[in-house]
Amino acid sequence: MKLKANLHFHTADDPDHQIQYSLYQAIDKASSLGFSVLALTCHNYFAWTKKYADYAKQKGILLIPGIEIGIQRGEVSKEGLHLLILGCDKKAENIYTFDDVRKYKKQNPDIFIIAPHPYFYGNFSLKDELEKNIDIIDAIEQSWFYSKWFNRNKKAEKIAKKYKKPFISTSDTHFFDFFDKHYATINAKEKTQKAVFEAIKNNKFKNTTQPCKFWRDMILKQGIFTISDNIKQFFKKFYKKPKTSLDFSE
Fold first, then answer.
1. Domains of the chain, residue spans
2. Is the Cβ–Cβ distance between 84 and 116 less than 8 Å?
3. CA–CA separation, 65 vs 60, rounded Å?
4. pTM here?
5. Which of 5, 36, 189, 242 has the fewest beta carbons closer than 10 A?
């Protein structure tokens, strides 16, 4: 069966961004656009609940639990190298290092790990750490954030081909403008988390994507969101201090 899917999705539950729509509004929007699968991937916070999943199911959508964690490069801080972990549980909030990821994956072999926007500018992208840790990566993201003459996805695609990793499109949704322009149609045996992950690993999907307009989309629309988000975060202040790395040997 063919499933319209977006595996990188943020909502108002996200503690790191001031997103303007709730999970319920997101599900309603996704349903109206014909989506069958969404992964809820808030930053450093496991937002998935059974109540959310049940609501999504009523709308014909499989809501996959997920998180976008920040891998630390030194002292534990709010920012880190982004990594998407799908099919996880709340313990994933306590992942801070690549060693943590390996321990967690060993204990939870059914999870699916995507490297999001790995070669984009900024201290949140994996860059060289992608190849150094390619053993834990199940797929690499084709980001929506590119134009005909500015495309940081090109290197990511080369690495995906080099290591035979699926290269899958998402909209990394923080606002709806690009939600229905960048996604994957997955040819899965059934609408289950396991079948979706298996289909992606076997490259049984087709990306739908198109270059953005550099000034209108990448600069103006993204810029407006970023500035607005930063202003709201400034007034919000005082985020919760992260805990130390979890002992997965329990």
1. 2-236
2. yes
3. 16
4. 0.87
5. 189
